[in-house]
Amino acid sequence: MINILTLFPLQSITNFTLEDPSFSPTQIIIFVAVFAVIVVALVFLNSANKKSSPAKSKSSGGGGGGGGGFSGLSSMFALRKLTKNIGMDSTQKKMLDFVFKTDGVSEPEKSINNPLLLDRHFRRAFRIIEQSPSSNEEVQRKLTILFSTRNLLENSPVGAITSTKMLKEDTVITLSNGKDKFEVAVTSAKDESLVVDAPTNVLGSQIKIPHGARLSAVFFTKGNKGFSFETRVIGYSQMHGRPVMQLAHSAQIKFLSVRRYRRKQAVIDCFLYLVYVEGSGKKQRLIVDKRRINGTIADISIGGCSIKAVAPVQVGARFKIEFIQRNASVAALGQVLRTNRAGMNTTIHFKFLRISQKSMNTINAFVYEYVNE
């Protein structure tokens, strides 16, 4: 856990008087000594941070991704404040420190609040770790910590939007009015009301929700973080030559849970092998059928994937899934969660039951786009 700097309240000074402002020689010596110790400690810490700066550090993140902090005590404490409540373990904290140190980050809050910028830092750290002279086992261990740290940041409320006044133009919001749902884009959030495109029906005609009607709203950021809030209709007007709806601003923004792991659309050829259980009890073992089914991965994460295939399969069945990524063979044991039939094709949704560390890192590198295919 992160050590939190605690500021203790000063003792009461209600009885302070100016009757005797003098101090004894002993008190003066103690005061000077304490002050000197504090100054020396701050100078030492600042010097240590400079010595471990990215320009001089050639470390590939030993002990889980390095450590030692990035430049500036204020940046170090800012990072600790940002990450203290998201459940990072010590190795993930060291890895995040290494990621920022590697790319010379001096404003961690700015990076954490910008998914594109954050991925740039992590991409650089990924390449450094992957190209390090460490053993393959050690490299895979560090990459696993790297991706677990990135995934934790993605699924945490760090950098959360706390008010609708922070919404950017063109942010798409899904409004719910009873059973009816409408997707609208933000036109302006700077004024006293949140201005969005007026909702329309399938024919393009404007739908006027009554004044004062209470609505539920959901939106997602570019970093795939979901939020919800409650609002009400204030009125209607025209902006830039088109009808808009005015909503009440809200400072009660709730963070929504998102997918446990980032998922990416794909078109990857794969093979499926039926896996069945032989024996019982301690003698039970998994047998992989030699016959294979051709398929195409449509989307994937380290938690599972969707595969399009012609052959029908049963829900609950287990398959070994194999495919090639970055000239390496990736394999996982998956279980069928559900299927969707469309003509001759079946879309099979798998949950991974067993997957190697190396295969997880290969999938994550593809999903987060940290490699050039």
What features would you describe in this structure?
There is one protein chain. This protein has 373 residues and is α+β, with helices and mostly antiparallel strands. The protein has three domains: 53-154, no CATH class; 164-256, Electron Transport, Fmn-binding Protein, Chain A (Pnp Oxidase, Chain A); 264-367, Beta Barrel (Thrombin, subunit H). It has helices at 25-51, 62-65, 73-83, 90-102, 108-112, 115-130, 136-154, 357-367; strands at 172-177, 180-188, 193-197, 214-220, 226-239, 242-248, 254-256, 264-278, 285-301, 304-309, 318-325, 328-342, 345-355. The strands form two sheets. A six-stranded antiparallel β-barrel has the order 1-2-3-6-5-4. Helix 4 (90-102) crosses helix 7 and helix 7 (136-154) crosses helix 8 (357-367). The longest helix has 27 residues, at 25-51. It is flat, with a radius of gyration of 28 Å. The model is unreliable at 1-21 and 50-71 (pLDDT under 50).
